[in-house]
Structures are given as C-alpha cells and as structure tokens.
Specification:
The protein is mostly helical and 211 residues long. Helix 8 packs across helix 9 and helix 9 packs antiparallel against helix 10.
C-alpha cells in the first residue's frame, strides 16, 4: 500500500474512533509513521484527506455494484435489471448490498464517523442524511416509478412504497452496528422483508394470484 492510501486508512480509522473534529493532522502522520510536513506533500489539509476518503469509498461502491451487474447510481439503468428479476435473485442482491454496507471496512468506519459527528457538525449531518437517507431513497424511488409504469409493481404512492422498502434496511443495519452478534437473525428478517415486499407490491404476481 502506498503512502497516500496509508494516510487515508489511518485517518479513517482515527475519524471513526474519535470523530472528524477531534483528529489532528499530526495524529494521522504519527499513525502512518511519517512527519506532518511529509503528509502535506500528499494532502494539503485534513479536508483534502476527508474528500479523498469519500472519493475512495464511492469508487469501492461502484466496484461492488459492478460485480452485481448494477450501475448503482443511474436508477433508469438499474430499473431494467429488476424488470424480470426473480424473488430469489432480489433477495440475493438485497442481502449482498446489505452485507457490503455492514462489513466493508471503508463504509463501516465512514458511517461510524458520521454517526459521531452528526450531532456536532451540520455539514456532516447533511452528508449523513444524503448518503444514508436521501440519496438511497431517491434512487430506489426512481426505480419503483419505472417498475410501476410497466405494471411490474403496483402502487400509486411511490414515496410510501420507497419508505416501506428502504426503512427496514436502514434499521436492521443500525441494529447490526450496535449488536453484531445478531447478524444471523437480522439477515433472516431482511429476507422475510424483501419477500413480503415483493408479494405485497408485485403487480404481475398479484394479478396471477387473483386470476
């Protein structure tokens, strides 16, 4: 691992333990085993380190969704994947994404940092909302709009359907953050949630059942 990435790793670990505001550049340099002036050759400020961590996390997410044959950012592209997906495949994708957010070292440490800082820094609180509430719900909602338009899902309150789908993911993730020993139970509940959601809103399946 090169020095630039060692700096990011050390900084993210410290941020996740103490919060962003309580970590100084000198501490990051000490954790890497270099002097502060040497660190500044790679990053001009603590904010620059933070920005690089965020960029790295986004790249890692793009790699993960690519492995699932998803775009991960463009809902219109990903909606096509869900047009003919089976319930078992839906459970598989949902579980993989959940486990990625739960166990990826970058994502875990970044989420913990924002959890600490959301009560102290309005900017980081806004970023927390963007990453873990607003952006995923907007993305999911756009997929549901496309699927409802084609009759694959049935509902005229997209915002409520989106909340119904995403809120349990978020809740179960936070439970696992606090109580990691409950992961097997949580994964079982997650699968039950996905299957129930699919059967409640799956337009085609409901039509077949009512025929």
């Amino acid at each position: 691992m090169d020095t630039k990435h060692r700096i990011l790793e050390a900084a993210l670990t410290l941020f996740s333990q103490k919060g962003y505001a309580n970590v100084y550049v000198g501490e990051i340099a000490d954790a890497v085993g270099i002097k502060a002036p040497s660190l500044y050759k790679h990053y001009k400020s603590k904010q620059a380190i933070f920005d690089a961590i965020l960029e790295e996390m986004q790249l890692r997410y793009a790699d993960e969704t690519s492995l699932m044959h998803m775009d991960g950012q463009d809902a219109n592209i990903d909606a096509q994947l869900f047009e003919s997906i089976t319930e078992d495949h839906l459970v598989e994708l949902g579980t993989k994404l959940f486990l990625y957010f739960l166990h990826d070292s970058y994502v875990c440490r970044f989420r913990r940092m924002l959890t600490i800082e959301q009560f102290h820094d309005t900017g980081l609180a806004a970023l927390y909302n963007k990453l873990y509430v607003n952006a995923p719900m907007e993305y999911q909602g756009m997929i549901f709009v496309a699927l409802c338009a084609k009759g694959i899902l049935q509902n005229d309150q997209i915002d409520i359907m989106t909340l119904h789908f995403y809120a349990p993911f978020y809740l179960l993730l936070t439970i696992c953050d606090r109580e990691p020993d409950r992961e097997p139970e949580i994964l079982e509940k997650l699968e039950q949630h996905i299957r129930q959601f699919n059967r409640l809103y799956g337009g085609r399946e409901n039509e077949d059942r009512n025929a």
